[in-house]
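Supplementary Methods. Inverse-folding protocol.

Structures were first reduced to a discrete structure-token string of length 71. This string, shown here, constituted the complete conditioning input.
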């Protein structure tokens, strides 16, 4: 969940959220993309982020709920 929120925030910040949502919808509806020769793959939005941070935050939240009883 944390990774999805971070990905959406980074996509929104870089003004590529529409492209990312389009890629996701196309992948779910067709299962593949038709790419013309010399055309850039639509799966690549050119964005990346350190997913380890999302894993760490999610782990801390899970630990907090498991052993501390929530917020």
């Amino acid at each position: 969940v944390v990774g999805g929120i971070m990905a959406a925030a980074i996509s929104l910040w870089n003004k590529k959220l529409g492209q990312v949502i389009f890629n996701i919808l196309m992948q779910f509806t067709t299962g593949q993309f038709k790419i013309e020769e010399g055309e850039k793959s639509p799966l690549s939005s050119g964005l990346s982020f350190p997913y380890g941070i999302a894993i760490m935050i999610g782990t801390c939240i899970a630990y907090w709920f498991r052993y501390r009883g929530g917020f």
